[in-house]
Amino acid sequence: MNRILELWRRLLYLGRRGAIDAALTDEIRFHIESRADELEQSGLSRADALAQAAREFGPRARHGEDSRATWQFQWIEDVGSDLRYAWRALKRSPGFAAAAILSLALGIGANTTIFSLTMEFLFSVPSAREPQRLVSIQLANSSHEPMRVYRFLRDAHIFSGLTGSFEESEVNWQNAAGSRRLSVYRVTSDFFQVVDPPMAMGRGMQPGERGVAVVDYDFWKRDLGADPDVLGRVLILDGEPHTVTGVLARDHRTVLGFGFAPVMYLPVTREDAIVSLTARLPQGMSLDSAYARLKAACQELDRVFPQRDFKRADDIQLSPLAGMDRLRMMNAIPLTAFFAMLMIVVGLVLAIACTNVASLLLARGSSRRQELGIRLAIGAKRGRLIRQLLAESLLLAILGTLAGLAINLWLTGVFNRVDLPLPIRLQLRISPDWRLLLYACAIAIGSALLCGLLPALKATRTDLQSSLRLRESSGADGLWNLRNVLVAGQLAISILLLSAGFLFLRNLLAATAMNPGFDLDHTLWAAMRTVPEKYTDPRAAERLVENALTSLRQTPGVEAAAVARIVPLNSQQTNRTDIRTDRGKNVNVKFKENSVGPDYFRTMDIPIVAGREFLGSDRSGTPAVVIVNENLARELFGETNPVGHIIRFVRENEAMTIVGVARNSRYFTLGEQNAMALYFAFAQRRPPDALHFLVRTESPASMVRPVTTILEKLDYTAAIETKPMRNAMFLALLPSRAGAGLLGAVGLLGLMLASIGLYGVLAYAVGRRRREIGLRMALGATPRDVLGTVFRDAFILTGAGIAIGIGMALILVKPLAVFLVPAISTHDPIAFGSVVIVLALVAAAATLGPALRASRVDPMVALRYE
């Protein structure tokens, strides 16, 4: 009980320091005046009585300190005292403080910004009521299930609620400006009851509702003019009226995560839809209990809806909607590895910044040798001085962290406004939270130790006799003193960062110049998304395609035109299955698949190396025909010509005749190697909602408007986007551009910090050697000799840093190979050579100022006795 009261007293003092100190002063005055009253009654005058009472009471300050000691947390008081002393010391050296804070601010700003990006992309928490109770369900290693499975599990009442969602859906929005394609999120009508996301206004859709829409806040503000009467407004989506029932909260995050930001939620309407399953666990239910109940339900599901090749009850996964479990479930390892690499890179930048500040503190400690020596001589403990010096480092780290957080807020605000032209809409919602606060606190403490511990130990490990001299030794401490070692380390880390940045820059240049296996410069891409309900009859869709191709081929300037289900380097459909050849051979292969029409290979300038292209006669009702690429042909038939051979998918057993072999090309990424591909005849498959027309022309840019006009006349309800194929490379080049931009910027930041450190060390060294330089010049040394000495020392430091950095880079950049196109190696000599040249030029520029200053030293001034 006494300890609790003591703790309460100490906490009370922290919050009411001023009032308690005033009360203590009044109490001391009361004791003195009470004793003075007694003395006055014994015959002393009032003045003598007060003086006698004060003498009897003793030192007021000491009694006050003794009283406060029973109320205080002494370590807090000591830290506060040290920080106040450090603040006064920094105010006396504003230049030093500004340089140190700026270095830390840049390093910490880069760190916290990448941390915020990582948290938003990988660990964002969905906007939901009690999101920790939401889990994602996978059955039989599949992330999506048919509607009948969703209904079966929902009606089993295993969870507090179960909902389904169909991501990456699109609709056409018809308004006064025409028809426009929108990225939407289709969900079952109980979604808003299960997830319960916060709303800015209105409500979510209710169970059983159709023809309703819940819009995103940004869409409401930007596209609907922030209409305050938006509730009840009718939007024409895919030709059908939809009533707006609500507007989501400003910073809404979906259950899918990864920045996915559809402009609105719509109900799932198709019975043949497949949906991902999200469940809300009952209060207090563990994942193990939920798994057991779900497994029993799936066993019954397998009995009611049996599958020939698998059982859903044999492979069940339940994962939270945030954290590492979700990343593993969604197989986001490459994305996780990319952000892990970025965190390591910005950690190295922070190490450079801390090394810069450590060098400044070493120089500052050297200039304070006499002060510290005096304090040690009169009895100060070394530990007390180290703590005080660390308090100065902590104050610098705190100020640097605050400035770094200001940089973070500015940069994340820029990222939040970026709108990437991707097939699905991504929108960052980065905002400060408790994770950023904890990370910033950890960085501040870590930076204080990295910056201050070595300088504090070195500054207090001193010879009293030399420290108490009236002037410093003017000689150099030797080339490989601690400051110079730190600078060499900075340069080595800069080499590592720049090597990674230059590799991605080379990768971007190589990817841009790479031949993807088809013609980018003479091809036009027109994406035409039709209203699905308008073309329920496949023959209507076929007529639309035929009319469009006929009109396009008759247009002046058009050499060829074709239709495709998928446009290379912008989307993919991958299949892994067993293929049986007519030789009785079964081969399990993973291949890219596409459905293309006649003239596709001529339009895209993909050579047919054997057989023929698809013909107009390859239609529905005729024998199925396919074209394979060279890699798939070799996998299935070796060196035998596959044309004329028949293959079957083992599961479907449909006979398909190979009529041609196409040259290998790129299908989804520029870095893929040995990809296999199979092309179906477009007219033998059901036409998709999104049609992709490809036009071969000499001048794609001049044909954008004519092609768009032709397609608009055929169907005014369709959303049409037309652009030259060269402009459609954004998705394929995104990894290279992101890597080059981020790593290049971080590498340049590290180089700038390292060059500042090099300049500071050389300038300090020249300043300390003024008397030595003056003596040498008085003895006959020329300015050229002095310049040579300074440059020699600088290039020894630079050479050591470059050698260490190149050695580190050759080993540590190897994991980047997964992000590079085949033409670029992690040992690329051009990238490493460029880095060495850049760093050498920067080192020469940083050396020039101190070297010129040294060459202009006046021997008489330098030798003057202080």
- Strand residue content: 15-25%
**Category by helix and strand content:** alpha+beta
Q: Work out the helix count.
A: 26
**Within the largest sheet, what's the order of strands?**
3-4-9-6-8-7
Measured between the Cα atoms of the first and last residue, the distance is 65 Å
Rg for CA atoms: 37 Å
Mass-distribution shape: globular
Mean pLDDT value: 82
Question: How many β-strands, per DSSP?
Answer: 22
State the domain count.
5
Question: Poorly predicted ranges (pLDDT <50, ≥5 residues)?
Answer: 470-476
Helix content class = 40-55%
Description:
The protein has 866 residues and is of the alpha+beta class. The protein has five domains: 2-72, no CATH class; 74-123 and 332-472, no CATH class; 131-322, no CATH class; 477-516 and 732-866, no CATH class; 531-717, no CATH class. Helices cover 51% and strands 17% of the residues. The protein contains 26 helices and 22 strands. The strands form three sheets. Strands 3-4-9-6-8-7 form a six-stranded mixed beta barrel. A six-stranded mixed barrel has the order 14-15-20-17-19-18. The protein has a four-stranded antiparallel sheet with strand order 13-21-12-22. Strand 7 and strand 8 (240-248) form a beta hairpin. Helix 6 runs antiparallel to helix 15, helix 12 packs parallel to helix 22 (730-768) and helix 17 (482-513) packs across helix 25. The longest helix is centred in the C-terminal third of the chain and has 39 residues, at 730-768. The chain is globular and about 125 Å long. It starts with a helix and ends with a helix. The relative contact order is 0.10. Mean pLDDT is 82; it is low at 470-476.
